[in-house]
Design goal:
This protein is mostly helical and 199 residues long. 66% of the residues lie in helices and 0% in strands. It has a domain of 39 residues. It has ten helices and no strands. Helix 4 runs parallel beside helix 7.
Length: 199
């Protein structure tokens, strides 16, 4: 976006190429990322700054980002304990750091912070799963005793709470909220919150 900014012609061409009617302003499938190609870098940056002030992005994404990366950090620690996986873990960490540094410009010019974090998180998780698969093949674990019902119940409650009590938003459609319950409430009240869309 910095070196190759788009323009209205670019957005319209992309919109037409996917078989969607070109409207002014672009809307529907052609809205969002495609429509944003018509913005200058100064306007894009101003939108990001507005979102930071309105939605508290630094607080929101620092907390949810740490929660999102918690399982990844635990996986790094677990695989580090396997001598055969240490070089692989270091390699994955180095590649992840370089990728995050290279994509940091996205956080400067676009508001979809959650989307960028999701992409990095998913890719790192896939690489760690590949290393874990190799570890299991080379160093199979002995059959361990199944935990009792109280421990299984506590673990299930913890996992469900972890999954449902927070989420990592990727768009600033509403004020900061934690939990998929807040997302469900927003979806249920979408029509009343955006009456202009459903005229």
């Amino acid at each position: 976006m910095v070196s190759h900014p788009g323009n209205e012609q670019t957005s319209n061409a992309i919109c037409a190429s996917i078989g969607v009617p070109v409207t002014t302003p672009l809307s529907g499938l052609c809205g969002g990322a495609i429509a944003s190609l018509t913005l200058s870098t100064a306007i894009a940056r101003e939108i990001v700054l507005d979102d930071i002030q309105v939605y508290g992005n630094f607080t929101l994404f620092s907390i949810t980002g740490l929660l999102a990366y918690l399982p990844v950090l635990l996986a790094f620690i677990a695989l580090w304990r396997w001598p055969g996986g240490r070089s692989k873990v270091v390699g994955i960490a180095a590649v992840a750091a370089a990728s995050m540094a290279a994509s940091s410009v996205l956080f400067y010019y676009a508001t979809d912070w959650g989307r960028w974090i999701y992409i990095h998180l998913f890719c790192i998780s896939l690489l760690l799963l590949a290393v874990e698969y190799q570890r299991q093949r080379e160093q199979p674990r002995e059959q361990s005793a199944i935990p009792g019902r109280p421990k299984l119940t506590a673990a299930l409650v913890f996992v469900l709470a972890y999954m449902l009590c927070w989420d990592l938003p990727h768009v600033g459609l509403y004020r900061a909220r934690f939990g998929y319950f807040g997302l469900a409430k927003y979806v249920l009240n979408y029509r009343s919150l955006h009456p202009a869309v459903h005229r």
